[in-house]
Design brief:
two-stranded antiparallel sheet, binds protoporphyrin IX containing FE, mainly alpha
Length: 533
């Protein structure tokens, strides 16, 4: 009997690629389930959609700044002089079959990609999934986020319309503010006096090849590491730091993931079909002597715009040279805002002295200091985002633009501090509520009147699962200053760094971060009848 064709093909491939053992080792790999684990998937699928639509766009887009006269089907632009880049983007929008839809899907997918990465990052941050052994994967992810921002920036600069040109001008201003080499850098990048004739072609190869290529490599490494480390999971019955409870990759997880890809694609396609994004025909071609009103970058670049808009226009003139602090300071702060994400896992593990592996996720309330830092960073980011759109806030809410600018200036400093304090208090409150639930059960909402007239609320006992979730987290003890005398009784000098670390560690894990978990005795005393309604 001859084996069926499918089997023979599989055998042929196995003899050359060894797919059987690979599949056997990985097909039944277990994936834990939680809704928040789908955020990384949304990032993955929108990235795939961007690549697919991007390839289609390359077929029709001309990355050239040569001047042409427009004669396409968009009547209001007839005979207008413009760059080939702009003319070809108009063609994509009006004369290429399906062009406008694909262009809009590309742009919407980019916005959603960055948003998905951001919330995915928040999920990883607030649950402590970045801890050992996943710090490197956190760094890979961070690079994906930053490169994604710049790929988006180079992308929306390509059409060479009045809005994108204004964005590029903004970047050129920042480059010019760099002391000593700024002018040179600008001349080099633009191939001459701004806007030069090269920037679109340069951004093009960066946009379609260099950055996506690096991102693809990082992404593969990112997913291999997720596979290799296995996925984290939330605490629950039967879940330990050494196992993974969930569904097998094949067939269940693959079927879910495949379906989810089409859901994401479908939703992005619907949005792109009904909501206009970047209507470049309404803006006109770029001319350095014009600025479009309401000029806004895409949302993920908004915080850098905010940094510039709220900065006082300080300038220093020394020995005939001008240092534009009003632009240079934001240029320095910009990478610092981002780098603070990258280094966080390393700072936390140093401060807390925690060198163990973690595969069980923290509930954010049980790590109040970390949660507070996360919310503080988000506050910082969103305050700057408000600054980047100060004109929109002013026109939509009938506010004075100066009031908004001052609001942003003050809250740039005060916002994160307030957010930190408030978040920590909320976490503590939630911990207290958990303790209360464990000891007294869930409030049922049923009020009973006792024979002697007293009203009490009936509390229901928690399920074993709920009880486990509420009590399973580990309570840390702060790292302390090591022994001050060595084994020979000789006094050791404790360095200032070591003291600082102990102090920080106490701030992190000290008593005002942890409501004591109920002890077995407390629990027994209450469930044995006293005080239990
Ligand atoms: C896990 C994809 C960006 C850090 C994952 C997972 C996927 C994924 C599918 C497993 C499922 C999940 O936990 O959501 C992506 C894609 C990205 C991206 C496609 C962008 C192109 C980022 C960023 C960060 C990050 C920006 C953080 C800065 C992590 C970490 C894990 C992870 C630490 C392991 C989490 C765990 O095991 O619980 N990523 N990610 N990723 N990602 Fe990402
Ligand atoms: C344009 C984002 C990857 C090809 C754009 C635009 C954005 C963008 C926002 C402006 C669209 C518009 O409104 O006109 C991104 C992001 C990417 C990415 C965030 C990856 C993370 C790619 C890839 C390709 C590509 C991989 C090609 C293989 C193009 C082309 C244009 C463009 C040809 C100019 C045409 C146009 O503006 O419609 N990109 N893109 N992109 N992108 Fe991408």
């Amino acid at each position: 009997r001859k084996a069926p064709a499918g089997e023979r093909v599989a055998d042929w491939a196995d003899g050359r690629l060894g797919i059987y053992s690979l599949a056997k080792a990985n097909m039944r790999k277990i994936f834990p389930d939680h809704w928040s684990f789908m955020l990384g998937e949304v990032a993955l699928y929108s990235f795939i959609i961007i690549i697919l639509t991007g390839v289609y766009l390359t077929l029709f887009f001309h990355p050239s700044m040569n001047e042409v006269e427009y004669h396409g089907s968009y009547v209001p632009m007839q005979g207008v002089l413009m760059s080939e880049a702009y003319a070809s983007t108009l063609d994509i929008s009006f004369d290429v079959r399906g062009g406008l839809l694909i262009r809009q899907i590309h742009h919407w997918a980019a916005l959603i990609f960055l948003a998905a990465m951001m919330v995915h990052m928040m999920r990883v941050f607030f649950t402590g999934a970045f801890r050992k052994p996943r710090e490197i994967n956190w760094l890979f992810g961070f690079l994906l986020f930053v490169l994604g921002m710049f790929t988006g920036f180079t992308g929306y600069s390509l059409p060479d319309d009045l809005l994108s040109g204004t964005g590029v001008r903004f970047m050129q201003g920042a480059i010019l503010s760099v002391p000593v080499v700024g002018t040179y850098l600008s001349m080099f990048l633009f191939g001459g006096e701004f806007p030069g004739g090269d920037i679109v072609a340069r951004f093009y190869s960066i946009h379609i090849l260099l950055l996506p290529g690096i991102m693809l490599g990082l992404l593969v490494a990112h997913l291999i590491l997720v596979f290799y480390h296995k996925h984290t999971q939330f605490a629950g019955p039967g879940r330990t730091n050494k196992n993974v409870v969930g569904m097998p990759l094949l067939p269940i997880y693959m079927a879910k993931a495949g379906g989810f890809f089409f859901l994401v694609f479908g939703i992005i396609a619907i949005i792109s079909a009904i909501a206009t994004i970047n209507p470049i025909w309404a803006l006109g071609p770029y001319r350095p002597d014009q600025v479009s009103t309401n000029a806004q970058p895409d949302w993920y670049m908004g915080f850098s715009e905010g940094l510039i808009r709220v900065m006082p226009g300080w300038e220093v003139n020394l020995w005939g040279h001008t240092l534009v602090l009003g632009v240079f300071i934001p240029l320095v702060i910009f990478p610092l805002v981002l780098a603070s994400i990258a280094v966080y896992p390393f700072i936390e593990s140093w401060v807390t002295g925690d060198k163990r592996e973690h595969h069980i996720l923290d509930r954010p309330r049980n790590a109040p200091t970390r949660t507070a830092f996360g919310v503080a960073w988000l506050t910082w980011y969103f305050v700057l985002l408000v600054g980047g759109g100060n004109d929109l806030w002013a026109t939509h809410f009938h506010l004075s633009i100066n009031a908004i600018t001052w609001f942003v200036r003050i809250f740039f400093f005060a916002g994160p501090v307030l957010a930190f304090i408030i978040t920590k208090r909320i976490c503590m409150g939630l911990q207290r509520r958990d303790r209360d639930k464990v000891l007294h059960g869930r409030e049922s909402g049923i009020i009973k009147r006792l024979p002697h007239g007293e009203f009490v609320e009936v509390h229901e006992p928690l399920t074993q699962e709920a009880l486990h979730t509420l009590t399973s987290h580990y309570q840390y003890t702060p790292a302390e200053v090591g022994p001050t005398v060595d084994e020979n009784g000789v006094e050791r000098k404790v360095s200032r760094i070591e003291r600082l670390r102990a102090r920080l560690s106490k701030a992190y894990y000290g008593r005002d971060n942890q409501v004591a978990k109920p002890t077995v005795e407390e629990y027994k005393e209450i469930t044995s009848g006293h005080g239990h309604h």
